[in-house]
Design brief:
Layout (H helix, E strand, L loop, with lengths): L3 H18 L4 H8 L3 H8 L7 H11 L3 H5 L3
Length: 73
């Protein structure tokens, strides 16, 4: 069984991969996602437990569905 911290790490890596695929730095990407750069860094490192509303905002900012964001997490 996967722990919540492992899930947070996997989600963070997924978001980082999607950001990097788009050629965006954390500084450029954070405003598109509606979060601060430090918040995004914490999410990408698995240090933040992200709300569903924030996940939806991140998905929209990346131009994908919430389902696509969570794929493989």
């Amino acid at each position: 069984m996967r722990t919540s911290s492992e899930t947070q790490r996997r989600l963070g890596l997924r978001i980082k991969d999607l950001r990097e695929e788009r050629g965006l730095s954390q500084y450029a990407c954070a405003p598109l996602l509606g979060v601060s750069r430090t918040y995004l860094a914490d999410v990408e490192c698995g240090r933040r437990n992200v709300s569903l509303a924030t996940l939806d905002s991140i998905a929209r900012g990346l131009g994908i569905s919430l389902e696509e964001l969570l794929k493989g997490v």
